[in-house]
Design goal:
Blueprint (H helix, E strand, L loop, with lengths): L3 E8 L2 E9 L4 E3 L2 E2 H5 L3 H13 L6 E9 L3 H12 L3
Parallel strand pairs: 3-5
Antiparallel strand pairs: 1-2, 2-5, 3-4
Length: 87
């Protein structure tokens, strides 16, 4: 396997870039550890670690995920007006 493998996923206006690098089996999301990012949710943690465990690579690779949410300027203007009406 190469030093790093990258993949991109998109859905509606969200983008996730995942990078699999040699490491100690840690998962980082937007620069935070998985536990810091999702809180205390062991079921979600197990689901995310499962592919590494099944392929016996849990102690060999780190997973680094960067997520973005894009929205158009029109949508941003609408949301700003909508939420100001509640103030």
């Amino acid at each position: 396997m190469a030093d790093a493998v990258m993949a991109t996923g998109r859905r509606k206006t969200s983008i996730a870039v995942v990078k699999l690098v040699k490491g100690k089996g840690r998962i980082f999301v937007n620069g935070k550890t998985l536990r810091d990012y999702i809180g205390n949710r062991p079921a979600v943690e197990m689901m995310l670690y499962r592919p590494l465990v099944l392929t016996e690579n849990q102690e060999k690779y780190d997973v680094r995920v960067n997520c973005w949410w894009r929205c158009s300027f029109t949508m941003w203007r609408y949301q700003t007006r909508y939420f100001k009406s509640f103030s």
